[in-house]
Amino acid sequence: MLGILGQKAGMSQIFKEDGKCIPVTSIIAGQSYVVQVKEKDKEGYRAVQLGWQEKKEKRTTKALAGHFKKAKVTPKKFVREMRIDGDEQFEIGQIIEHNIFKEGDFVDVTGMSIGKGFQGGMKRHGWSGGPRTHGGMNHRGPGSVGATTTPGRVLRGHALPGHMGNRRTTVQNLEIIKVDKEKNILMVKGAIPGYKGCYLEVRKAKKK
After folding, report:
1. Residue 50: pLDDT band by 50, 70, 90 thresholds?
2. Please, which of 6, 21, 34, 57 could form a disulfide with 29 given CB 3.0 to 4.6 Å?
């Protein structure tokens, strides 16, 4: 299995025997249920659809309620699809747990980054800004963004102020420092996308 679903619990730190401090992020990784299995001869690719965390049936749309009922699982809050590369077989209703990972493994963690609203170019793109002395009046503005007479317009894709954050983001090659089997918690080295409590997809690292 390539991965599981989880929820960000927050950041902490772990001290090794040699006294070295390692910053870690805790991920609550409970039981993920297989809601749907996609096969290559029917859908064109192999994948499993996983559901995580219980949801009230009255807050579920009729279409999704029927989808969960067909899989014989209770409604789930977070549903995501994960590709299958090998020949491993899965059944609808099967439970996937965090024991597919162990300490020392490397994972890719995907989540929604923290939204920061509308931001200027200096914060969004790292612009240096205008002159701040000798009568400079444009400190944080974009300044000139055109390209003179030719082509005489702002080219498509030009970096400008706008909405920042709240995007699907993946951080790759994070090492699993500790696995707490009793509390169903994975501790990975470093930071991961999203705010405390956001939903995450934890997959085996592709580039390791």
Report:
1. very high
2. 6
